[in-house]
Amino acid sequence: MKAKFLIPLALFGVLVVFLAAGLGLDPREVPSPLVNKPAPAFKVPQLEQPEMQFAAEDLKGQVWLFNVWASWCVACRQEHPVLMQFARQKLVPIVGLDYKDKRKDALGVLQRSGNPYDINAFDEDGRVGIDYGVYGVPESYVIDKAGVIRYKHIGPITAEALEKTIIPLINELKKS
Amino acid sequence: MKTLYAILLVLCACGNAVAKDAAPLADDPVVEQRLIVISEEMRCLVCQNESLAGSRSDLANDLRREFRTLIKQGKTDAEIREFMVSRYGDFVLYRPPVKPTTWLLWLGPFGLMIVGVVALFVYLRRRSTEIGPENVLTDEERKRAEAMLQEGEK
Lengths: 176, 154
Description:
The structure holds 2 protein chains of 2 kinds.
Chain A: H1 2-24, E1 43-45, E2 53-55, E3 64-69, H2 74-89, E4 94-99, H3 103-113, E5 119-123, H4 127-131, E6 139-143, E7 149-154, H5 159-175
Parallel strand pairs in A: 3-4, 4-5
Antiparallel strand pairs in A: 1-2, 3-6, 6-7
Chain B: H1 2-22, H2 29-39, H3 58-72, H4 77-88, H5 103-130, H6 139-153
Helix pairs in contact in B: 2-3
């Protein structure tokens, strides 16, 4: 008989566990179906040198970090110092995709706060972004030697994510 | 009177501006109709509680533009859905396909209902056994109860 009174308490416990787990999840982090798929091909003008093109297959045979950013993106400013620090390590090429931006604004940002990118592709109308399933800038992709997306990071890269996930993954991919 | 004219003039100008904004929608009513039907079934990833048809976010605008192109290229609805799913995952569909990873989503409510119905039956059965034959009054008890009731009526 006594156990009966514990049933609501047990149900409450289950509810608390579900709510706690739910609060810990970020609804903006939608798992990308592109992970472990070949990186979508594209060819767009570069940001700094509009007369030159950048294509995804230019970096075949290398592991690289593909970072989608824009001058209007506030969270990108938060990410910027982390990328600068990562760039100093010279581990892999960092390719930027300047997404739906104005060339002048983007170049201004890079001049003022530093340029962590080896190359910047200029995606003026956001067409490349759509192919990469970008829905919230900044987003970053780790692409392996075979041109396959191995990891996608949504939102600004934190120092912790870089140390714990991205760098170990890159090191492993470089070995293979 | 002059101010009234001025106000009317401003109102007319506003009306024109609105009409101009809406113009591209009427480009091809057939395409727009299909666009609305398809995009109402999809989630806008920027503002997740809005459909792609209703969202005014930049990405939604771009995707609608993309849909128009795809429709004009003669793509079927299924192909357009595939276009979205291959980029953003099943999450983008308000009605995701039934497959192992979505079984819980589709069948969970029915599972909960079955659990509830079973619990209800168990509860009702237990209650009916509690007032089972052994609890029915014997003839003697019935007489006593009737006597008590009659006494109460007096």
